[in-house]
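Duplicate of #3305? Posting structure anyway:
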């Protein structure tokens, strides 16, 4: 059987790690997602707006690993 391999970006891999290994608490429609690079730090994800408080989202305007982690968690939990 031949098939294409799924190629994940570094951001997607990090998002899967966060979703699998971290607790992502929800509050008032937002999610708190820990930083992988700064111990004790976390970011706030707003899934309704599709944004996060991390620099990738606020400065670079890209879909960050924190938002992806929340989306993966929501899909896994049927939210």
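Output from current build:
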């Amino acid at each position: 059987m031949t098939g294409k391999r799924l190629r994940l970006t570094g951001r997607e891999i990090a998002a899967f790690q966060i979703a699998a290994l971290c607790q992502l608490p929800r509050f008032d429609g937002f999610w708190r997602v820990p930083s992988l690079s700064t111990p004790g730090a976390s970011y706030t994800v707003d899934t309704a707006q599709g944004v996060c408080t991390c620099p990738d989202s606020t400065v670079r305007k890209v879909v960050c690993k924190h938002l992806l982690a929340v989306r993966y968690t929501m899909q896994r939990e049927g939210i």
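Confirmed duplicate; merging threads. The two ends are 35 Å apart (CA to CA). The chain has a mean pLDDT of 93.
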